[in-house]
Fold:
Amino acid sequence: MHLFKKYEQIKRVIESLLFISEKPLSRKSIASLFNISESEIKSVLESLMKEYEEKESGILIVQIDESYQMVTNPKYSEWVILFKNMTLNNKLSDQAFEVLAIIAYKQPITKAEIEKIRGVNSDYAIKTLMDRKLVKITGKKEVPGRPFLYGTTKEFLKLFGISSLNELPKIDEFQQFNAA
Structure:
């Protein structure tokens, strides 16, 4: 195989691997895959990184220590955040939003207290919110059985575009809105 074709093929395979990988790929592991030196892989990766930068792609390849990863271009971060918030909002059920609102306004709060407010079991909604890293266990309540206390996370704040819980609308604002 012609040297240039082999180089281009390696570059496109690396690009594919970086695209599907959830974690940074080490130069060493990539080199061992192709059975070539790390310095050759470094050259291929630098060329690939340059290609993405020059075309001002929405995706970049970044070096993290001796590893590489595809990331979204910070130039377009506002759009990524907007889309992420929109898709996450679409994926949360009404029940999960209800539980999230209760936790946001009443935290720290136990599962039993949430269920008393809602009148139904909230296991699945709490699990969903924890899986999405919107709520977390903040401690245990000092009562018999020591149930977990739940509160919101930094991800919750990011999702709603606020920097602190003080920026949440006040409950009476909702009452005025519903009365109108």
